[in-house]
Each structure stands twice: as C-alpha cells, then as structure tokens.
Design a protein that fits this description.
Number of strands: 5
Strand content: 5-15%
Radius of gyration: 14 Å
Number of domains: 1
Largest sheet: 5 strands, parallel
CATH topology: Rossmann fold
Order of helices and strands: EHHEHHEHHEE
Distance between the termini: 18 Å
CATH class: Alpha Beta
Strand order of the largest sheet: 3-2-1-4-5
CATH architecture: 3-Layer(aba) Sandwich
Number of helices: 6
Length: 145
Amino acid sequence: MSILVDSGVVGGSRLPRDGRHAAAHAATKRAIAGRWGTPIVSDFLVTEAVTLVRTRAKSHALADDVAAFLLGETPYGKVFVLERVTADVFQEARDIFRTYADKELSFVDCTSIALVRAHDLDGILSFDRGFDGIIPRVDPAQPEP
C-alpha cells in the first residue's frame, strides 16, 4: 500500500493561516505514520510545495524547511519516498494534460496521475477534486472512520 501526497496537503500543513491547515496538518501526520502505507512525493510535488510555501508565507526559511522535511534532511530522517518524473512519465503526463483539457488540472497534477498509474499506487492524498474519476483520491478534509 502506498499513496502520493499532494503539495497542497504538505504545504497547507506548514501554513497556519491556510484555510485547510488543520485538515492538512492532521492528514500529513497520518500519512507519515503510515495510515495509507508508504507516503510518496515526486520531484515535481516537492518543487510545487516549496514554491507554494515560499509564495504564501513569504518566507525562504519556511520554504527551505518544507524542502528539508520532504527530502529527509531533518532529525526525523527520511519520511517520504521521492519518485522522480522520468521521461516516460513526463510524456504520459503530457498525454493526460491533453486528454483532460476539460478538467482544471495543472501539468503537475497530470504528472501525479501518471506517477500513480506508472507505479501502481493506491491513489493520491489531495484536496483537489480534479483527480476524482481519474485516480483514487483520499480527501484530507474527510474525518477518519
């Protein structure tokens, strides 16, 4: 069992003023505790999460802390598995981007879909409903059963 963790979840967990902070923080804690198996991020999601935090918090230090957390450069050690977007996954993402032109998916979202499919992951932990009907999505805002 393994799940891709979207940048909005990790980013929101580090931004106290984010409207979804509490849900994002709780979901991130559950993910690193193994609730959905191995938590995975991609190199594209690391880039997106760091940029999100840098832009919203206007803090280089906090953005660097997010990068360190995702890359395992903290006293907690490596928590997330980093999957790189390969040339094949990138091309698949390009095809997905064209196929789902009617959805509000970013290109990074399409790389996430391609990674979930390529690595046979169980789904994505994300607030983004754009994934619905394409890949399984765990909504961090939903309470645990």
